[in-house]
Amino acid sequence: MTDKLSGTLAKTALVPARDLLPRGRRHPLIIAMALAAGGTAKTSTTTILGTILALRGYIVRIFDLDPQCNSSEICGRREEHREPEQKTVWDLIQGLCTLDEATVPARYRTGYDDDGNPLFKEVPNLFVVHGDSQLTDTDTLLANKPQKFNWFYNLTGQYTKGDMEAQDREVWLLDLPANYGKLTVSALIAMTEDDEVIPPLLVTGKESGALEKLLKELLAMQREFSGDMAPATPTVKHVLLCATPTSSHNAQEYHDTVEEVERDYPGMVLPYVRHSGVTAKQYRRQVTPPISDPKSAPSVDYEKVADALGFPDLEPAEG
Ligand SMILES: Nc1ncnc2c1ncn2[C@@H]1O[C@H](COP(=O)(O)OP(=O)(O)O)[C@@H](O)[C@H]1O
Ligand SMILES: [Mg+2]
Fold first, then answer.
1. Mean pLDDT of 254-260
2. How many other C-beta atoms can be found within 10 angstroms of the C-beta atom of residue 7?
3. Cβ atoms 186, 152 nearer than 8 A
4. What is the pLDDT of residue 319?
5. How far is the CA of 189 from the centre of ligand 1 (A)?
6. Residue nearest to atom 13 of ligand 1 (CA)
7. For the chain, percent of residues with pLDDT exceeding 70
8. CATH code 3.40.190.10 for 24-302
9. Residue to mutate, 44, 175, 207, 305, ligand 1, most ligand atoms under 8 Å from C-beta
């Protein structure tokens, strides 16, 4: 092959499509957004990437494991809109409902009716395990009822043992809280090296050392739990840099952070997600950029992230 040709190929070559049920596993692939630092784009990444994968034809289930319930909120599921009988992740952890009973279709706000009530439309293929502010009590719950600590691993076990079946093309995205408390650990120990933990790092933030701390915590989980209790091999394969510099957001400090992470994690850095004011709007608007602003920076950038993670469009438009 000529150098010229291989150069062209290298630029356009797609990352191979990911095996969604590797090594014969029966439960969906898990991608967890984790980093114990507030405001590092865990929720932004979960909801925007989740929408893109759903629009690409994957069946995406977002687990809203943060008591702040931001993923639910962005997915049109604010606490105040919840039907009284609707189950949540809090019920799921306690074993009071099934996974599907705690899951609702994600939706986006299209406007308001004459009485000022919001109107919603469902996002095809996108689902949320409904968040719950009571999750702040999870550490106490799991301390008092240690058998519930395995709730997430047991959930994957329901597939492994055969009474539940992963939908073809199903992926689970976990939006984790900004700490390594029992809830975070209970979710991460169910993960294998086929899954992945993605730390999103906001380059405008000040959490140097947070990545190193995450890796140490994952290693500690592996030592403490792997073997008889759970697979406990949560693995970081990629690092996601968010709010990277643009012509209007251009402090030297941001460039330094990008450079530092590229140096410390060679080959692991995903395509950059540039700084954009559009990202923050999804909280108030209750609609994610790929739906509201498909040509905006976050939409375009997270499309590249989806490619790099091995999730090609399963339903590409003709022509
Ligand atoms: N690419 C980006 N550009 C600009 N702001 C961003 C970007 N990604 C996230 N943010 C903002 O950073 C803040 C924290 O993001 P969020 O996703 O809520 O973090 P976390 O879930 O880790 O707490 C939010 O205000 C969000 O809008
Ligand atoms: Mg969050």
1. 94
2. 11
3. yes
4. 53
5. 26
6. 39
7. 95
8. no
9. 44
CA of 219 to the centre of ligand 1 (A): 27
Is the pLDDT score of 1 beyond 50? Answer: no
Q: Which two tokens stand for residue 168?
A: 């073809």
Question: Structure pTM?
Answer: 0.94
**Residue with token string 């074993």:** 95
Residue 35 or 315, more confident: 35
Determine contact, residues 174/183, Cβ cutoff 8 Å: no
Mean pLDDT, residues 8-37 taken together: 82
